[in-house]
Design goal:
alpha+beta; Jelly Rolls; nucleotidyltransferase activity; isomerase; RmlC_Cupin_sf
Length: 171
Amino acid sequence: MNINLSANVEKSHIFSQIAEELKKLNFNIAKQDQTRPWGGFFVIEEAQAELFVQTFFPYIPLTDLQITQKLSPKILVVAPEKRLSWQYHFRRAEIWKVIAGTVGVVTSDTDQEGELQTHSLHSLIKLRQGERHRLVGLKEWGVLAEIWQHTDPNHPSDEDDIVRLQDDFGR
């Protein structure tokens, strides 16, 4: 993605740039959320999950990604020096790929946070169901492609499937 990720770029401009890049890649944006205090996200139409995988995860067979039929493709956007909550999920595993910028990721098998790991362009991050994790913005904006691997086909994960252990924004 050809995006100006400088820390002084306004959130609305970052989102406009990403939306334009997604349109160039023929993705339909089902939802956009710029209201998150840490940045926000784009939801790509579920019908385009296969195209999303081919575009951002071409070396991973679709069958390896699908635990159930649904993948919930998203683009995460993390602001400079902001942190998502320290969290985990009951009904999904996640796979992230850095597609623009550099980000920090903290993981742990317990409620105690591990060390910050820096991930740059093309880095792949796999998060198991129940694994504690936090995405961290560094000096610039960071952009990741995300796949949700739903672990319960009868009750797919959603935005309510977040257990927050710590949150900078009091949520």
